[in-house]
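Researcher: Please predict.
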Amino acid sequence: MKVQIARLSPHQNAKVFAVLTALSSLIFAIPMFIGFLMLPAVNPAGQPVNTPPPAIAFLFPLLYLVIGYIMIVIGCWFYNFMFKYLGGIEYETREQ
């Protein structure tokens, strides 16, 4: 039996995707945090340098959360709008 997805829930899909991307970005944020901790506080000439705060590495998961949410809401809205004209994603199911 062929089935078409007629509507994607923007809020629910965006919540799930935003949390998944934020959590997966921690794979990069944690090593960045460690790297920021290892930055020297002086340049090669021995003068003090303002190093970025290590907590800035954890800004990325927050950005992934917010931007991911917004982009998925827009994507679902676009899918729901275009369904009227093009049809939906189609898949086939079978009873076992």
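Model: The radius of gyration is 22 Å.
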